[in-house]
Amino acid sequence: xxxxxxxxxxxxxxxxxxxxxxxxxxxxxxxxxxxxxxxxxxxxxxxxxxxxxxxxxxxxxxxxxxxxxxxxxxxxxxxxxxxxxxxxxxxxxxxxxxxxxxxxxxxxxxxxxxxxxxxxxxxxxxxxxxxxxxxxxxxxxxxxxxxxxxxxxxxxxxxxxxxxxxxxxxxxxxxxxxxxxxxxxxxxxxxxxxxxxxxxxxxxxxxxxxxxxxxxxxxxxxxxx
Length: 225
Description:
single chain, alpha/beta, Rossmann fold, 5-stranded parallel β-sheet
């Protein structure tokens, strides 16, 4: 079976790719250059795709910066030093409007052209910083889109959306990835990296990543400023 794996280059998507490969899928990685300030993640995606044996890796350009509305695509400051309670409360300014919905739409198109039967997403509801497009309800809605809005769907064989990390904690994700041989040194999670790619250590993504390694009892290989 062939699968399209959305690969940002971060910890979660790398683990999702490893899980899909371990289940015997032929995986085609799909990444997006969307005007993100942390575009260094695309270099990480390339490293991860190669290291984990993706059959192919495609990078699609989508200019979400032209829409704005997010600290990841405009000049809004990335929040730093927030507590875990603050991170888990409300939708933060790092949310990119409809980003995952747009990504899935593109991925469904790629799946139809390539004949892939699955679409694998590394979304996670527990450590998602309140993003609305990381929830099971959203996954279910997008599955309906795949069923009703694609040729494969109306012909009775819709692409199946798979979210293996959806209910896992960050520590659980890291433990699973380590067991599958994921080298997390290759990944990048920081929303506001330094010019040399070092992680800031204080944005929400860095906080969640650091806490995950601590709770998993795994040394954190991240290079911080």
